[in-house]
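User: hey, got a sec? need DUF3598 domain-containing protein folded
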Amino acid sequence: MASICYSCIVFPSPSPKPFPFLPKLPHSNPFPSFRTSRLRAANSAPVQEQHYMSIDNLRQFFDLNSGKWTGSFHQFDGNGNLLQKISTRLSASCYGEDELISLIQTLYIEQPQSSTSISGHDEEAEWAEYKIKETNMFTVDKYQQIGFFPNERAFSLRYQTAGMLETVLRQGVLGEDDTGEESPKNVKLPSCQPSIVCENCLYSQAKDRRARAFHIMDPKGFVDMLLIFLEDRGDGPLVHPSLGNIIDGEDRILPFLGKWEGHSVTKRSGVYGSTMTEADTVSYLEMDDKKKLIQDVTSMDSRRGVRTNVHWTGMISNNSVEFEGAYQLTLLPGGMYMGYPSDIAKSVAESKSFHLEFCWLDAPGKRQRLVRTYDAEGLAVSSTYFSEVKL
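Assistant: Yep! Here you go:
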């Protein structure tokens, strides 16, 4: 993208202290939209070439998502307690060519069995169908602000509303939209107007399985709920570790304790997805007998010769970890956790950037992390992918 001058962009105020598990990233800053890039491409051969590469990136993204997926949907509250689990199927395919290529997805949600079913008779499962809004070059850049890592098979998406998720929950739990009934006990629907809905998706390195994690924030900037789709490619039955409330928070943190080494890649949001920086990382996490956590992170950007050290302390209570600096982790079963600021509205009011994180330990001693960085206006400006091994 030689003709697009990122160095001319005004940088925002310095970012706050980096959050735990996250090496210091470059300052988040706005960038030209795809539409602006297309206009500049008309008079620039290098940009025109890059434009075609962006189409290729989008096709790779579609290829990664296409096919049939069988899995389960898990809904957690902010404390990591499982509220409900629903079986799901997803069918995704693309059509069109070049700039007109689009991805269409249909989600099928298993319906609860009727309370009037005959005892001893196995009632055939019913599935509700939901058409997800098409994804194309315009929506990916304008609305979803994609952060895509084709080699690592990972991506982040930002949504403006949780309408789809609310419909999914209503179909899966209530059976119909707007029944006028109260929500079943222990089932909470997302806010109708959340401030942020962020999807982070990581693919297993060992099998054709993926985990899609959703941060659902309410209009005041607090976590409304956390959602996990765990899916296998194919239309067969899904066999996966239970994500129920089997172990408590202290046990959930155990797989993450110790020394981790790895590599991180940070990319700008958007279909161009240019790499901003790469770094080697070393992370230590220890817990004493009083459940106090000590976190030390060192990152080294050898290309720029920049070394960063971050020290954090925090406390664990049940399934939650609260670090100084008002950043929290919710520990989930299945070797997962999700990180977020304690109060996003406060970060925005203070003109500070903030981060949302999803971590998945999908194999013993190996984990992947995806961190989504937002600017003070709530725009997703970059994504960082981590691949780490435990020593």
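Quick note: The chain is about 15% helix and 45% strand. Let me know if you need anything else on DUF3598 domain-containing protein.
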